[in-house]
Design goal:
This is DUF218 domain-containing protein. One of its GO terms (cellular component) is plasma membrane. Pfam families: DUF218. This protein is of the alpha/beta class and 220 residues long. 46% of the residues lie in helices and 10% in strands. α5 links the parallel β4 and β5. α4 packs across α5. The N and C termini lie far apart (34 Å).
Length: 220
């Protein structure tokens, strides 16, 4: 791990509180569809391919257009690059559906549901595959907009330190984790997600990181 991609020792424990909070620790189970949520992290597609090869679902939907943080990395769109990566990992092209217009997690969910309906697919269960620190928000969003489906969450298994090293940008990763934490209660208040419990140590860790300046991904 390079020094540029190492968490500051003074903040590492604080960041790990939030990292652990967002991981729902769902055991992998068979579901009807795997849904890879678009982002800057190609590990989402790697995880989706691995779960497909374990026969945990017969079909994958990759969903995502672009955000300012992904347009340079995935110029043809997040979902398109995810599919290419999954196919390169041995997933049959015919097992993948693409949703290429969603620009946030709510749209990932609602537009994927519409896409599946258009293909005559009405899943009773789905596996949401996301960045590790997006699991809780993805779950809460899906429960809000798709309440009749059983939801499991999954991410590529990794430690916090290895994830930071893999992304290679401490400021970005910590700011994204802080931003996702704020969205847990903020989006519930705005009706974008169901409420989630937020323990005191999570709120304390969030405030400490905000005070340390990791605020670039906060919602106004």
């Amino acid at each position: 791990m390079s020094p540029a991609a190492r968490l500051p020792a003074a903040l590492r424990g604080t960041v790990e509180v939030l990292w652990d909070y967002h991981d729902l620790h769902h055991d992998p189970r068979s579901t009807d569809v795997g849904i890879g949520l678009g982002s800057h992290d190609l590990g989402v597609a790697t995880c989706a391919a691995a779960l497909y090869h374990r026969r945990l679902f017969p079909r994958i939907v990759f969903t995502g257009a672009n955000a300012p943080t992904t347009v340079e990395t995935f110029p043809r769109g997040e979902a398109v690059h995810y599919r290419e990566h999954a196919v390169a990992l041995g997933v049959p092209d015919e097992a993948v559906l693409l949703e290429t217009t969603a620009r946030n997690t709510g749209e990932n969910i609602t537009r994927t549901r519409s896409l599946l309906t258009a293909h005559g697919i009405a899943p009773g269960s789905v596996t949401l595959i996301s960045r590790p620190y997006q699991q809780r928000r993805a779950y809460a969003t899906c429960r809000r907009f798709w309440p009749d489906v059983c939801v499991r969450c999954a991410s590529l298994p990794t430690t916090l330190d290895d994830y930071v090293a893999g992304i290679g940008d401490v400021e970005r990763v910590v700011a994204m984790i802080v931003g996702d934490t704020q969205r847990i209660w903020l989006y519930a208040e705005r009706g974008y997600a169901i409420p989630q419990p937020v323990p005191d140590n999570v709120r304390d860790a969030y405030r400490e990181l905000v005070e340390a300046g990791y605020t670039s991904r906060l919602v106004a």
